[in-house]
Write the structure tokens for this entry.
Amino acid sequence: GQQLNQSPQSMFIQEGEDVSMNCTSSSIFNTWLWYKQDPGEGPVLLIALYKAGELTSNGRLTAQFGITRKDSFLNISASIPSDVGIYFCAGQSFYSGGGADGLTFGKGTHLIIQP
Amino acid sequence: DTGVSQDPRHKITKRGQNVTFRCDPISEHNRLYWYRQTLGQGPEFLTYFQNEAQLEKSRLLSDRFSAERPKGSFSTLEIQRTEQGDSAMYLCASSHGVRGNEQFFGPGTRLTVL
């Protein structure tokens, strides 16, 4: 089955630093999504990417859909304490009937910010 | 739009009992997904509905699991004869489908099987 390798597994950074994380796959995806999850809550959608090479921003967050369609990157600029949490990448494929497969998730990057 | 809601938020049950969870998607979203998440892992896809039709099931969905979406609105996920390995967070997500395939998640139901 499809697998996503997400790295790093965890990051310890100082407030104000920039953060980079990435996700690679053995399969091609048509859509890449990035989510943030706080303890005891469901994942919250941050950014959706639909085209190879696409670069999309959402405030201090920037994500890119890799040219090979097998990877994606998320950057957070000038981190603040509320950025703490677990960040997940997710890939989605579509089939010819117009429906969509369920998302395949990475194992997450745990972001810890030291004040 | 109100977000995706799930009920209950927490459920503790004894091994062998049946449990049922409910998910109310964002209104006008015709696609509804169920996922399971265990500690330290990302969510894993279980099953997917487009309106009332169940279109896809993961191999993770054993025959003790059944999901329904009878009127194409809310959905239920039932686990029969629960086992300790069923302990997990069960997440529901919905997407519009026509206007986009972004999936929006509910807060989840945390199941503990004793």
